Amino acid sequence: MALRINCSIQNTLSLLNPPLSSLRYRASPLKLKPQFRFGQNLPRGALFCTYATADITPSNAEPFVLTTPLYYVNAPPHMGSAYTTIAADAIARFQRLLGKKVIFITGTDEHGEKIATAAMAQGSSPPDHCNLISQSYKTLWKDLDISYDKFIRTTDSKHEAIVKEFYSRVLDNGDIYRADYNGLYCVNCEEYKDEKELLDNSCCPVHLKPCVSRKEDNYFFALSKYQKALEETLNKNPNFVQPSFRLNEVQGWIKSGLRDFSISRAAVDWGIPVPDDKSQTIYVWFDALLGYISALSDDQEQPDLLKTVSSGWPASLHLIGKDILRFHAVYWPAMLMSAGLSLPKMVFGHGFLTKDGMKMGKSLGNTLEPNDLVNKFGADAVRYFFLKEVEFGSDGDYSEERFISIVNAHLANTVGNLLNRTLGLLKKNCQSILVVDSSTAAEGNAFKDNVENLVDKARIHYENLSLSSACEAVLEIGNVGNSYMDQRAPWSLFKQGDTAAEAAAKDLVIILETMRIIAIALFPVTPSLSWRIYAQLGYSRDQFDAATWRDTKWGGLKGGQVMAEPKPIFGRIENQTEVEDKGKGVVAVGKTVKSKGKLKQAQEVAGA
């Protein structure tokens, strides 16, 4: 996404890109070759009614590759992993609207000590356990409307081949050596910890559990060799790590001095064997991080690292939680330098989620299960709430009361009710037929300019990865649409007849054109809701799928188009108070009732 923070990230973000034929890292000053711009000035295309499908970007343009972490399969997916993936999906959908070729990568990290332990605790084998949990991720992603292109599992044979070839390149570069290591080890992080970063009683600051003393004969990666190179990278590419305050963290880690880290384990059987030494398995991060590259390979009989890299690497954007920032912003770039491969263009570390202001944990009994949320409220509601209410990059909080309040106010009322009452008036007074083109209806009307300005704001926010602000801009389009309806009161104008009725008919076209634009602009966040809006406007699924961001330009609806039968596109959710009031005989109009955990939409009354 194009970022226009300060001097514009799209103009400053660049990439270390040594020739792939170079196997050895050179310590000479780094030359940065600007290669990538998230956003570009895109030409305005044909009106929506033409459904032009020409690419906005050249067909030979490099792909936009974005990744989620490869999620660890020691347990089923939680809301934190769902949040990252929802955000990644919104970014992927927006980039596709711009006409980009997108490769959206997600998957599962399936090796390591914790996996074997978790499988044993369930009375299962590691392969069976991994199959079960990996499938649970795929099922959840389907339920959340996640449009990933590649799902990589680190147990895939093609992944193992890529890892081994990468390992050999780093070894040939002189950056892997064998040594004894004695230190404090966090089993949950699967990482040796420096004593100065631990809490009291040698507790890990992330998992709040005591680290254990371990002494092992392992292979090590010479991370310290790349300290200066990493410092230069961050100085020349200040947008390599985002948000900016995460960059400060990374620079602090590097400045404090980098230590070589272990990349193998002697006592762990469940993993990829070290080439030429089957007594050791490759450490989970030196394994898992390569999934971002192995995912790009086709199901070849003989996977090849350089061929795979040519299929889309480097990644345009790594989306991760802040707890794994060190691995992605320090370890990973150094590993790639050693192997002579290009660095990812950006690492974005988002914050944590809390519930009712408290950190979530099984011991507190306040975990937030994404499957429960989707089953109870639907994918659109879940996606919208977390992207709208959590400033992307910062920590965010969930409470069911606020969830229901936000979703009802924004999706059911501001968006849903505006469309429903407008279509109701059109059916009653115009037989559901548009009387004039939307461009003609808005001639000389400042309302059109207001909407287009808000669309431009939404686009900039999407490009900046400011997903909450993008939602806010689109919501404001709905707000101005509702204000326009209330000010114009077309129901009254229709009663006056003649020119007043003609003006009222034009007003309805203006509002419906606004709804069409909202559907496109909100599509990255609420894809199913956007489709329901399009269907109400009389469009087919093929027409909906052909829409691009250029179709947010005013003028898509044409005179003579027939709208669909009006019906609610998003029913309101009842909170517990409303349920209790209803039990006491208090009736709420236009509510949604829950039935077996699902939302059952009630009929709403269109404006008369």
TrEMBL record:
This is methionine--tRNA ligase. PANTHER family: METHIONINE--TRNA LIGASE, MITOCHONDRIAL (PTHR43326:SF1), METHIONYL-TRNA SYNTHETASE (PTHR43326). Its EC number is 6.1.1.10. Gene3D superfamilies: 2.170.220.10, HUPs, Isoleucyl-tRNA Synthetase, Domain 1. InterPro entries: aa-tRNA-synth_Ia, Anticodon_Met, Met-tRNA_synth, Met-tRNA_synth_2, Methionyl/Leucyl_tRNA_Synth, MetRS_core, Rossmann-like_a/b/a_fold, tRNAsynth_Ia_anticodon-bd. SUPFAM superfamilies: Anticodon-binding domain of a subclass of class I aminoacyl-tRNA synthetases, Nucleotidylyl transferase. It comes from Phaseolus coccineus (Scarlet runner bean). It catalyses: tRNA(Met) + L-methionine + ATP = L-methionyl-tRNA(Met) + AMP + diphosphate. Residues 440-578 form the Methionyl-tRNA synthetase anticodon-binding domain. Residues 59-115 form the Aminoacyl-tRNA synthetase class Ia domain. Keywords: Aminoacyl-tRNA synthetase, ATP-binding, Ligase, Nucleotide-binding, Protein biosynthesis. Belongs to the class-I aminoacyl-tRNA synthetase family. The keyword Transport does not apply.
